[in-house]
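Quick one: structure tokens for this chain, please?
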Amino acid sequence: MHTTATPTIVPDRRAGPPGCGNGGWVSGMLSERLEDLVPTDGGPTTVTVRLSAPTPLNRPLRWEVDGTVDEPDELAVHLLHGETLLGTARRTGEPTAEIPSPVTLEAARTAAATFDPAGHPFPGCYVCGPDAPEGLHVYASPVASRPGLLASPVTLSEEGLPPVLAALDCPGAFASGIDEDPLLLGTFVVSVHADVPRDRELVVTAWSTGREGRKRWSGTALHDGDRLLASAAATWIAVPRDLIPGTAPAA
């Protein structure tokens, strides 16, 4: 294992839960660092990210690499704050979960228009927070004609994997019942199937794939019309509101 020399930070404007980096954004950072080391040779880019601890904002973070680029399937990239492991990314096989057919942009706009911010646990979240001034404002909400499916439009302006994975993150939490309990992202398995256009409205969809105790599972997908751009499978952990300082009270 070796440590890279260049530190990085997650700025305030990329927050998720109060004082912490958005889980999708952090997963994108890890995936992008892995991709820089072992670029994909055609086909979908699929990465499994396991988040081990909340990522602090505006703190110097460091990278560690386990393995060599000669064996890309064994390579692991770790993000740390001091000696605390925050997350790990590894190359994996493509998820086999079935992806629902896309919804139209008009249907996604209609669904998002019904979003009710009351009781949102993380109103400052970069992805889904109504109070985030530079946020994506992805308000995944039920699609009237598609029971169990949520949708929202999203426009990405920045290049790279972090905004793509961020857009796939929070909608899964809404599909998994974040209005019941705050949810923290645990494991994120993401496949990028095609280049993601910037500065154009895309559609993100989300659906629940089950729950057991404090664990919840969800799927998300990003489409440009009928074209699948990216998809993800997430494992969430439900956490009581009083255990995350700064969490907004329930409605």
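The chain has a mean pLDDT of 92.
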